[in-house]
Amino acid sequence: MRLVFVNHAHPDVPHVSGMRTGYFAKEMARFGHQVVLLTCTVPGSRPPVGAANSVAGRLAGHNWAEPLVIAIPPVRHRALELIRRRRAREPIAYLRG
pTM for this structure? Predict the structure, then answer.
């Protein structure tokens, strides 16, 4: 089976939010599934750049005994910043819950 997991925390972050998905992805790969984990980069790091590090290149040459971790740097968004500071206008503030 081919699986894609999406998690906001990288599995190398020493917190359960990242580690749990990382362990789960490893176990699914151990059972023979092809697992891709989409996540944020580790704070303070940047993903590698180049043709060999393209998603297509990494998929083609990956050893599926382990999950393929694709780390993407987070993008700051003005609406999220406004919500976090509680300065959003009413329609956006309503989404906060």
Answer: 0.71
